[in-house]
Amino acid sequence: MRVLVSGGAGYIGSHTVLSLVAAGHDVVVVDDYSNSKPTVVGRLEALSGVHVPVHAIDLTDAGKTERLFAQERIDAVVHFAGYKAVGESVAKPLDYYRNNLDSTLSLLEAMRRHDVHRLVFSSSATVYGEHAPVPYTEDYEHLSSSSPYGQTKVMIERIMTDVAAADPRLRVALLRYFNPVGAHPSGQIGEDPQGIPNNLMPFIAQVAVGRRDKLTVFGDDYPTADGTCERDYLHVEDLAAGHVAALEHLDDMVAPVRAFNLGTGTGTSVLAMIQAFERAVGRELPYEVGPRRAGDLPAFWADPTRAQTELGWQAVKTIDDMCADTWRWQQANPQGFPDA
Ligand code: WQD
């Protein structure tokens, strides 16, 4: 299929582009480079051996989005594009609602006008909110998130569900990611957050490569085995494979719209992740324990059964794979992707 990947120059989008090409699909990328760099595309072409066409437009511009669909033959869309920083979304809710919702609405309208009926959406485990029983299962109904970022994911899942109810041709997979980490084994692409990393793994990697002095562990007094929070980390290569599996199963789904957890089903603590990264680097890494971060939940992980039974997908990479691949990427790219 010819697949439009929105946000295809981003962290998860770029890894998914490679997996789609490896699975025999053609890819077109649309990305406004608001949280990615054009140099990623050159890396993708070098790694995949194919030309990757890019439309550098803002999907909130309905006119430009329409012109993209008029120019390109598209069979399916994988929709990653969106702002994703939880803390920033609390400070700038209007930016997040405007960007994440308008880009999705433009996309859905253009898909309808051009008879594109296959859609895979990048959702998040954050939609389960604070009260869902762990492990999270897809049939949990009280979806709500504590951040405007997470709420955009809840709203977009609802929008897609309603649009599919009105158009029986539409097939939508809602992929709820847990904690994506790691990098392509080549070390040529990986997670490259701009500014101070919000997330654990890129922060640890920047400490290891000498860009940051030390990691602050946000609290070690949680009701968990070692007192630090536990999360379901999954390798971005496994996550990319999950997108290919979902795309290729869209026409066979038991319902027109279907949510799938993409996780390992296992929780790993912050301290355990630090120790795994130290094994990858071969030395101890400096950290100190600080206060809890507002909004952090003690522990959650996926029940990945549905993706296993309905998509034939399961995560296979280990925590040590995640750390070794992240470290290879960070060592080869201490400052992340070049600007040009
Ligand atoms: C993991 C653990 C922190 C940084 C977030 C978003 C979620 C999704 C994934 C978009 C927590 C601890 C972190 C640090 C630390 N993003 N930590 N020191 O919060 O589980 O999920 O990213 O979809 O929506 O909420 O991931 O990596 O930020 O934190 O101790 O410098 O690491 O407290 O326990 P999180 P995270």
How would you portray this structure in words?
The chain is an alpha/beta fold. It has a domain at 2-181 and 233-265 and 301-315: 3-Layer(aba) Sandwich (Rossmann fold), CATH 3.40.50.720. 39% of the residues lie in helices and 16% in strands. It is built from 11 helices and 13 strands. The strands form 4 sheets. Strands 3-2-1-4-5-6-11 form a 7-stranded parallel beta sheet, with helices on both faces. The chain has a two-stranded parallel ribbon with strand order 7-10. The mean pLDDT is 98. Bound molecules: UDP-4-deoxy-4-formamido-beta-L-arabinopyranose (WQD). UDP-4-deoxy-4-formamido-beta-L-arabinopyranose binds at residues 84, 86, 124, 126, 179, 198-200, 203, 215-218, 229, 231, 270, 293, 296. Belongs to the NAD(P)-dependent epimerase/dehydratase family. Its EC number is 5.1.3.2.
Task: Name some characteristics of this structure.
single chain; 340 residues; alpha/beta; Rossmann fold; two-stranded parallel sheet; 11 helices; 39% helix; globular; binds UDP-4-deoxy-4-formamido-beta-L-arabinopyranose
In a few lines, what is going on in this structure?
The chain is α/β, with parallel strands linked by helices and 340 residues long. The chain contains eleven helices and 13 strands.
